[in-house]
Design brief:
Strand content: over 45%
CATH topology: Porin
CATH class: Mainly Beta
Shape: globular
Number of strands: 19
CATH architecture: Beta Barrel
Largest sheet: 14 strands, antiparallel, barrel
Structural class: mainly beta
Helix content: 10-25%
């Protein structure tokens, strides 16, 4: 009983600590709103999120708004679900996109990352007495809402787009935050099946305004455990830039191969990535997609290159995350699956990702 209680107390405490850390970061903390960088769509996960130059469906509203105009269908709907941390957290996505004109498209997207049923033990001990009936539960949930628009430019093969996004984060009744940001992007396709993309995320610097709501008794628990009582504050997310190039090789009417390379550039200081300076960090990743008759797809990707201390002597070694995926495209339904971190070559946990995309044409 006591071990279980300790485990639940640490779990609840860790969630609150993460929320408090974000709220106290009055300027530019690393990994702010990082749940918006996880990605969407099993196709992208199977290719290690290397898709900004090749995406051409409803998921472009998240990856590269400018690519929404490449959607061939009048209307597309996509949903995705994935478990993280052995089912402790759930990550979900739903989106809808439509061609409003031959040269313009619009989409609405939502992502949710949440940990549910977290035991709240702040009121476990009252007047020196332990009462398990006072243990309640709460959820720590992050939401991202995107409204994206794309337009073809006058230059052949060039398109541009952008997204307005609203961020809502909360941990039970203790704290909540609202934020707003802007993404912008361009995509260029050549006649010989090359595609190039540039995406600027949080180009205006996204903000989260945090508000805390603790009772006096709960604040006393923080003080008694040598924790600082959180205060209302503002958290900022610095811009992030994504570069991508893709090439499609067509071998016959039945077989083709798509290769893409991306580079993510973070401007929040030095991160544990392959390319890093005190001001900017670069994270390269690559992906492949083999197609048979545009019906069956086999995907693979490599990313998340990091230097970690491993082994008995804790020597520094480079780790990476290889991913694989499968896709099946029927007449109006596409089903995709991805398995991340095959071979357990990185510090991340395995994740099974499933997504479905449906199309509607008049």
């Amino acid at each position: 009983m006591h071990f279980s209680l300790l485990k639940y107390t640490l779990l609840a405490g860790s969630i609150l600590a993460l929320t408090k850390q974000s709220a106290f970061a009055q300027s530019t903390p690393k990994y702010s709103n990082e749940f918006l960088s996880i990605g969407v769509g099993a196709r992208a996960f199977g290719m290690s999120n290397t898709v900004i130059a090749s995406v051409d469906d409803v998921t472009a509203g998240y990856w590269n708004p400018a690519a929404l105009v490449d959607q061939e269908d009048k209307l597309q709907i996509s949903v995705m679900h994935s478990d993280y941390l052995n089912g402790l957290a759930n990550y979900d996505y739903i989106a809808l996109s439509t061609k409003v004109k031959d040269n313009a498209a619009l989409s609405f997207s939502m992502v949710r990352f949440g940990v549910d049923d977290i035991p709240n033990t702040l009121d476990l001990i009252r007047n020196g007495q332990i009462d398990y009936n006072r243990v309640s539960s709460f959820s720590a949930v992050d939401y991202g809402f995107f409204v994206s628009y794309a337009q073809k430019a006058l230059v052949e093969g060039l398109s541009f787009g952008g997204s307005a996004k609203i961020v809502h984060r909360k941990a039970g009744e203790f704290t909540k935050a609202w934020g707003f940001g802007i993404d912008a992007s361009v995509k260029y396709k050549t006649e010989n099946d090359w595609s190039f993309a540039f995406v600027g995320r949080d180009i205006t610097t996204t903000f989260n305004a945090w508000q805390f709501n603790f009772t006096e008794a709960e604040e006393d628990v923080f003080r008694a455990t040598d924790n600082v009582v959180p205060e209302n504050s503002l958290e900022l997310t610095l811009p992030k830039f994504l570069l991508g190039a893709a090439k499609k090789f067509t071998f016959s009417d039945d077989f083709s191969l798509l290769a893409e390379v991306n580079l993510d550039l973070n401007t929040d200081g030095k991160r544990n990535t392959l390319l890093k300076t005190n001001f900017i960090s670069g994270d390269p990743h690559v992906g492949l997609e083999a197609a048979y008759k545009k019906i069956i797809f086999l995907r693979g990707g490599l990313g998340n290159l990091q230097e970690e201390r491993l082994g008995e002597n804790y020597e520094k070694e480079w780790t990476f995350m290889p991913n694989i995926g499968l896709g099946l495209k029927l007449k109006k339904i596409s089903i995709d699956y991805a398995l991340t971190d095959i071979g357990d070559n990185s510090g991340a946990n395995y994740s099974h990702v499933f997504s479905i995309r449906a199309t509607v044409n008049p």
